[in-house]
Every structure is written in structure tokens, then in C-alpha cells.
Amino acid sequence: MANFKTLDGLDLRGKNVLVRADLNVPVADGKVTDATRIERIVPTLREIIKVDGKAILLSHFGRPKGKVDAAYSLEQVVPAVADETGHPVGFIATDWTDVTAARRAIDSAPAGSVLVLENTRFHPGEEANDAALAARMATLGDLYVNDAFSAAHRAHASTEGLAHLLPAAAGRAMQAELEALEKGLGNPQRPVIALVGGAKVSTKIELLENLITRVEALVIGGAMANTFLHAMGRSVGKSLAEKDLADLANTILEKAEAARCAVILPIDATVAWHFEANAPNRTYGLDAMDPDGMILDVGPNSVERIKGAIDEARTLVWNGPLGAFELPPFDRATSEVARYAASRTKAGKLVSVAGGGDTVAALAHAGVKDDFTYVSTAGGAFLEWMEGKPLPGVEALRQA
Length: 400
Hints:
By secondary structure, the protein is of the alpha/beta class. The protein has 14 helices and 17 strands. It has 2 domains: 7-173 and 392-399, Rossmann fold (3-Layer(aba) Sandwich), CATH 3.40.50; 188-369, Rossmann fold (3-Layer(aba) Sandwich). The chain has a 6-stranded parallel β-sheet with strand order 5-6-4-1-7-8, sandwiched between helices. The two termini are 14 Å apart.
């Protein structure tokens, strides 16, 4: 991962530093309800302002569709940025068609300022990766730092185009993410086990096909496991399953066998007859499934099998829950396995890397989000990395 610059390779002193952050955070009643993404950029901002640089934040927020829309103004996240940095934060309005006024505002700000520029998606050129917009952005800074891994899978003006126009580097949050991902799949300690859950095989075909060539064992959970069980001739009752993908599921199993990747599927299940919290349920072996039941979680024997596989691994990569974790008691398997992986991590026996929205929520629900080696808050970017795809925002830094 050393083939791009970090902040250590830039002279930040007295410079105007354009920082691509991810300020696309949840807001309710005008207030930020989860500041995790803001917290992660604070180390980068502090390094800039302590040497009298100006940290000038670029970000998208929501989907204003290339037009100025007050509902999507980044002005509403400025108080949260100030709270997290413990530093005054200025806001600069612009529609991005002419940045002359923004340039004046930046120049007149004192050294060591933190400034937030208006939503980059207020201009259609952002998502189109328009060269003219990237060039306008570049006139506002001396250096470019990308600290938004969660937006790195998009080739936009502020994530990709701008990186080619100024001396560029990864910020500390981006650096930490890439170093963690390198430990996960790039150059991991082996054996590696991947745990993939979620609802649909159809959304994770490329992910599964990449993983079976990169890991020693693959645990498949969630409703997507039902598709594989059905393909193997097991009854899944009225469970959610993509039965039309049976041939694809069997092809993936054949490829895994050829690649010597052990695929671990549920051997028992927690079954209910209604999809609701605390619905009456019981455990079934998958050779005796109730035809009217729905599999809502993997069963206790499956959990012990997964724990055994984790015992044999040195690295775990996790994306997606094992069951309907948002509905108790069908959160049991996900929480138990998460706590077990966390305990192995704390004992120094496992490198654990997890990511994806549902995964982060599930680990937080289990109380172990801070006990994994690294938990990525990047949804789409984390998934595309797991699929083995190059990420434009990262590739631009490699070339910079």
C-alpha cells in the first residue's frame, strides 16, 4: 500500500489543502445523528491546522441531482464538524459555476482555518467527473488530500479528477482504511476466512466469485444461504430464496471446490412462521425443515461450526449478517459469532476486518464494533474492494 503518498509526503505548512471528506452523514431536525465519518477525518484536519495550513473540506451530501437545493446544503453539518474538531469552522457557499468568491473567502480566512465548501453535487459536473469543474476546484487549493474512502468507488470530479491536478495524498482515515484492507485480503495472515451474509445472492455474485479465489474458507449466511441450500436439494420451506439462481449457486460451489475454498453453509436453522420480532420459533436440522416455516437465523450447531472455522483462521473478513439481526431473537447467531471473533481479536489470535452498513450496525448491536481490528463505514466502496475491483479515488492517488 506504499505506492501512494500519505500526509507524511506533503509539506502542509501554510498551504491551502483541499480535503475530500465524506460529510454525507445522517441528519434529523437539522442535527447530525451519527458523526462517525466526521470523527475519522479529525486527525487529518489537526495535522493541517497545527502547521498553519487551511483545511478546506469538499464533500457531497445526499442527491440534489446537480442543482442547488437548500435541503442538501452542507451548512447544516458545520456545527458537527466544529464539535468534533474542537475548532471554529467556516462555511463557504458556492454553486460551483464560478468560484471567484469562494477563492476570496479562502484567501481572507486566517491561517489554521477549517472551512467547509458547499455540496459538490450542486453542480452536474461533479458526478460527470467534468474536467472544467475539477479545474475550478483546483484553483482553490495548493494540495489535495483524499480522506473519503467511502466515496472512492466513484469517479467524480472531487474524488478522481481533482487528484490529477494538484500534489495529492491519502489522508489519515484513508490511509488507515487501505492499510486495514491490505491486512484483510491484499497481503493477509493465512488462513483467511470470509463471512458473507445478507438477503440476496444476486447482489453479491462478483463478491463470492472473487472471495473463493482469495480465501481458504467462506461462510455463507443470511437469506442468501437459503439459495445455496435449495440448489443442493434441501427444503427451505417458505424462506426468502432466489430459487431461479440454483444453477449459479451450484456453479459457485463447483468453482470453490476447484479453488480449494471450503464453503460453510448452515446445518441447522432457527425457524419461525411470521417475519416479526419475538415470533414463535424453534430450531430445525436442515434435513427436517417445516415446509411452512421461514429460516430467520442460523442455528446453534451452525454457530459452533463457524466458531470452529474462526479458530483455524488468522484473518477474518466480514460483510453481512447471518440472520434477520434487526428482529430479536433472530440476532442471536450474528451477535454470538461477532463476540467470538472480537474475543479472538483481543487475544491477538485474529485480524478482523468488517464493513458494509448492515454489518456495522450488527457489530454495534453486539457491542463489539470497537473490538475488531478495523470496521469500515464505507458501504459501496468496501463491497467493491471485496469484489476485487479497482477504486477510482484510490487509483488516482496511486498515479498522483
